[in-house]
Specification:
The chain is elongated and about 75 Å long. A six-stranded antiparallel beta sheet has the order 3-4-5-8-7-6. It has a two-stranded antiparallel ribbon with strand order 1-2. The longest helix is centred in the first third of the chain and has 14 residues, at 17-30. Helix 1 (17-30) crosses helix 3 (54-67) and helix 2 packs across helix 3. The chain has two domains: 2-80, Arc Repressor Mutant, subunit A (Orthogonal Bundle); 85-237, Chorismate lyase-like (Chorismate lyase, 3-Layer(aba) Sandwich). The chain is α+β, with helices and mostly antiparallel strands and 250 residues long. The chain has eight helices and eight strands, in the order αααββααβαββαβαββ.
Length: 250
Amino acid sequence: MIEQVEAQIDKTSPIPLYEQLRQALLDAITSGKIPVGAKLPTEEELCTRFSVSRPVARQAYSALISEGYVERRRGRGTFVRMPDILGRFLQTQLSFTEEMEITGHSHRTELVRADWLDQAPEIFTRLRMEENDRCYRLLRMRYVEGRPYVLVENFIPESIFPGIDRFDLAQNSLYKIFASEYHLTIPRSRRTIGAQIADEEFARLFEVQPGSPVLYVENLVYDQYDRPIDFSREYMDGLARKFEFEVVNK
């Protein structure tokens, strides 16, 4: 990948050397010459290619890491990271497919598990379900640009969505099915951000170590009749994901 980085480092320029190198790397990333998920040159390779010192190379990478363009993976190197797509839509209720259509990223979904629950007190309370009701649990893995992006667990009450298990929910949007098949809209939802540590399943799916930090978002969705109709948990790699908010004082 080092041949994709085009730069002439000018040691007489008032622009710091690390900033010149950072900009050269950033240009290669944003232009697509170095794609998302690609492994970047080592610091030693940058030093040799551009005749700069190790601290200069390290500072250039540190700046790109803090800006969210690249990430370090322990024992593996430095990689171009996936943009924080989810953070852009945290205050908007969109399906995953709609988010990807807006951002233009390639994506796919794999169904990890699907089953019925007839005993889940915490979930039943959140969804205002009766004791004799049951909910459909979906566990799906989302990939963006070929990389693990988010693990999503949904809980859907059968009393509101009878026959929901007949749909292929790896290939079809859950919220589009809510609208087209059950004639329900989603005017609002309530979200909570938290943190956990990676269990064995998460570590396997995301290719991280067990015990690594995990970001998760709980989402309780309401329909036009103000009924809670879907409770979900979204799990993300805590070292690779971040959220950005705009705060306005009024």
